[in-house]
């Protein structure tokens, strides 16, 4: 019961306390205006160049923008403890580390999902995107999986942010890598060979492909392999993040650098 | 490719200016130096325009860097018919972006999270200024918004120079609009800072 409380209640409290983007003054420009403008930019580039269609760019960029809260919120909920001088308090509690940090991921997954949905709904209302009614449950699931997978990467980034001072720069670099390598606006098949080799090992790649197929009318069973691979990639990064957290915690205690800012 | 190559070369200037200039005064506030800036016996413009001009020099670096990597990485060799006019157009883009950055900086003085405003301006600028898509392809109702940004005209001047046309009309419009933003910013700067001083909101954290 205590573990469940730490996972759900503790995670939600940490998210609300540490992620200051929930203020409308930040939320609206960062998580509503920006994804919409990114979708518009790439959709218009596609139209001008006569490449792809609106649906291709809406699905790619809407899911890509889920990475922003997943990377930055996850990082903020960990790095924020250090900046708030509360990291030592958190780490001296007897709470198990896995629910302690994974709990912080749950609200972040919902946040990422909601941001991606803003983009999808905008595409549906304003651009030339049509999604069959029967495809919606599968699409909602694929977007949730994409968000969870990105949050795994965010957890790894949050762990690194315990050591790296400029977590925001790291987040922007990772976001740009996902934008280029995950088939967001250029199909993975059209990327140079070495980039296409990296793509399957990054979050979003499989989910974006699955979302595009589902939006074209494919059933969830048709994209089951892609969804499983996306879950696997996310789990890989989440495990890496937990390992890094554990190692950096030990190192910080040993070298007395736990709250060095 | 020439169209996209030229746009990509100049679009970095927008990012350097828009994102940072919006949060210039917020950064002063974080550093605890905003009161000193306001109390200095000089206009806000004399303090802020040198900073936004410095930001524009980083933008100039992005132009050079992008032209070089376009050539070396993508094998895209830009055809520039008139280098003097091309350089003049790029410098006009830098100057007017500094003026526009001054406008952004003062109007966001009471916006405590102005960094988010700056970050969210990146894509709209890329969309509206015609860097990688022609302004004409945007919906008609967006055209006046595009035309009201000096960088749109600077980008047109850059393309005209590269294609061997005359950029002077675009440069004139670019400089006029940029100067209008600078004048507006000088006026608004006084009003907004005075208002912040009256309401004791200068040191919002």
From TrEMBL, chain A:
Species in which this protein is naturally found: Nocardioides antri
Coiled-coil positions: none
GO molecular function: ABC-type transporter activity
Membrane topology listed for this record: Multi-pass membrane protein
GO CC terms, sorted: ATP-binding cassette (ABC) transporter complex
Keyword annotations from UniProtKB, A to Z: Antibiotic resistance, Membrane, Transmembrane, Transmembrane helix
GO biological process per UniProt: response to antibiotic
Protein name according to UniProt: ABC transporter permease
InterPro entries, sorted: ABC2_TM (IPR013525), ABC_2_transport (IPR000412), T7SS_ABC-Transporter (IPR051328)
Residue ranges of domain ABC-2 type transporter transmembrane in the record: 22-212
Keyword Transmembrane helix: yes
Protein's cellular compartments: Membrane
Residue ranges of the TM segments: 21-45, 57-78, 105-127, 139-162, 169-188, 231-248
Pfam family, any one: ABC2_membrane
From TrEMBL, chain B:
Tagged with keyword Membrane: yes
Location within or outside the cell: Membrane
Domain of life: Bacteria
Molecular functions per Gene Ontology: ABC-type transporter activity
Topology relative to the membrane: Multi-pass membrane protein
Main location per the UniProt record: membrane
Membrane spanning stretches: 6-26, 47-69, 89-111, 123-142, 168-188
Record domain ABC-2 type transporter transmembrane: where: 9-160
Family matches, as InterPro entries: ABC2_TM, Nod_factor_ABC_transporter
UniProtKB keywords: Membrane, Transmembrane, Transmembrane helix
One GO cellular component term noted in the UniProt record for this chain: membrane
Residues making up the signal peptide according to the UniProt record: none
UniProt keyword Transmembrane present: yes
Protein name: ABC transporter permease
């Amino acid at each position: 019961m205590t573990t469940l409380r730490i996972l759900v209640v503790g995670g939600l409290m940490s998210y609300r306390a540490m992620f200051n983007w929930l203020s409308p003054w930040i939320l609206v420009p960062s998580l509503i205006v920006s994804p919409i403008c990114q979708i518009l930019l790439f959709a218009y580039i596609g139209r001008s160049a006569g490449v792809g269609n609106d649906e291709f760019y809406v699905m790619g960029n809407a899911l890509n923008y889920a990475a922003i809260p997943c990377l930055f919120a996850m990082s903020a909920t960990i790095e924020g403890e250090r900046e708030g001088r509360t990291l030592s308090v958190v780490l001296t509690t007897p709470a198990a580390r896995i629910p302690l940090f994974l709990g912080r991921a749950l609200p972040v997954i919902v946040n990422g999902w909601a941001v991606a949905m803003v983009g999808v709904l905008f595409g549906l209302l304003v651009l030339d995107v049509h999604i069959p009614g029967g495809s919606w449950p599968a699409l909602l699931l694929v977007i949730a999986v994409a968000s969870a997978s990105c949050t795994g990467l965010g957890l790894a980034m949050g762990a690194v942010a315990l050591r790296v001072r400029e977590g925001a720069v790291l987040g922007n670099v990772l976001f740009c890598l996902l934008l280029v390598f995950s088939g967001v606006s250029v199909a993975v098949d059209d990327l140079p060979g070495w980039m296409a080799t990296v793509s399957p090992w990054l979050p979003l790649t499989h989910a974006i492909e699955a979302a595009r197929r589902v939006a074209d009318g494919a059933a969830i069973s048709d994209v089951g392999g892609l969804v499983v691979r996306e879950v696997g990639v996310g789990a890989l990064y989440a495990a890496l993040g937990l390992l890094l957290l554990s190692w950096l915690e030990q190192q910080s205690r040993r070298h007395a650098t736990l709250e060095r800012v | 490719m020439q169209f996209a190559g030229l746009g990509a070369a100049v679009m970095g200037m927008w990012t350097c200016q828009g994102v940072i200039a919006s949060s210039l005064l917020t950064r002063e506030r974080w550093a605890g130096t905003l009161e000193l800036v306001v109390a200095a016996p000089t206009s806000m413009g004399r303090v802020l325009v040198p900073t936004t001009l410095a930001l524009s020099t980083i933008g100039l670096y992005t132009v050079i860097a992008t032209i070089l990597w376009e050539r070396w990485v993508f094998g895209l060799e830009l055809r520039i018919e008139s280098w003097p006019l091309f350089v003049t157009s790029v410098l006009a883009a830098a100057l007017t972006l500094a003026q526009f950055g001054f406008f952004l900086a003062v109007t966001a003085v009471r916006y405590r999270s102005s960094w988010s405003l700056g970050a969210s301006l990146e894509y709209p600028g890329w969309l509206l200024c015609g860097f990688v898509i022609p302004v004409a392809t945007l919906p008609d109702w967006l055209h006046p918004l595009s035309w009201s940004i000096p960088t749109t005209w600077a980008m047109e001047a850059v393309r005209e120079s590269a294609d061997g046309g005359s950029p002077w009309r675009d440069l004139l419009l670019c400089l006029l609009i940029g100067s209008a933003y600078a004048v507006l910013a000088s006026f608004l700067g006084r009003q907004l800072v005075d208002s912040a001083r009256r309401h004791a909101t200068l040191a919002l954290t």
